[in-house]
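Both lines are retained for reference:
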Amino acid sequence: MKFSTASLVLAAIAMDAALAGPVRHAHSHFHEKKDTELSTEAPVSKRGSALVDFGTMLEEDISKLMSLGFKAVGVNALYNNGGVWIGSDGAYTSEFTNNAKEPLVLTVWGPQGSWVNAVQPLVTHSLAPGAQVTVSFAAGQSGAWSAVYSDTELCMGQVCNTWAEYTMGPEGVVDISKEVNMNGHGMEVVGPVCTTNMDTCVFQCTGGATSCWLEYELLNCSGPGAQSGTYYGAPSGGCGGLGNGAALKTSLF
């Protein structure tokens, strides 16, 4: 992601820009808002005793997200919509595995913003312990994903947990960011030639801060596929080598 987008998000908050907008972690550039890709609500149908959003959300998880302050559950497209959708038929994919000992809700957003209290996420998906789901990304898509656990809250409208940031494309990268919450849950993303996790190719705060937007570093990002440097004076990089298509594997701990 060429320089940490979490830092830009937190900077925007500090400037009273915490409502949805185009500024979020920048993957080498800012992003324009694309209202046409958003709907105000994800359709929900009743199946058995639980409300299920096309089989992606448990009723109790929908209630949890709403109680936390989410604007809505995810768009949760089940077909190639040219952006981000649930399925394995995209050029770029990530297989998400819940390796935690509790259920969680995978949450993916795009360039419209990380403020899930004001912008509908692209994907929200219930994952029981050990469960998996694959999400596809079209070339050029950029954003981040995180997960909602039993102890997760929103901080200023964002998922207050570990993020993985992505820009999908031949020059794109993925990286773990702990800037929003240095005490967030563990995550690892394995790419074609590079791995980012809580210790490797990770953006983290410096000086003992538990969250940050200016004082951060990119840690241990070297070797095949890794990119590390500065962008307008800020730490920049992540795990590259995505080529014209890549199948990532994301573990949520």
User: Anything to note?
Assistant: The first strand starts at residue 45 and ends at 47. The CA atoms of residues 139 and 169 lie 5 Å apart. The two ends are 22 Å apart (CA to CA). Residues 7-52 have pLDDT under 50 and may be disordered.
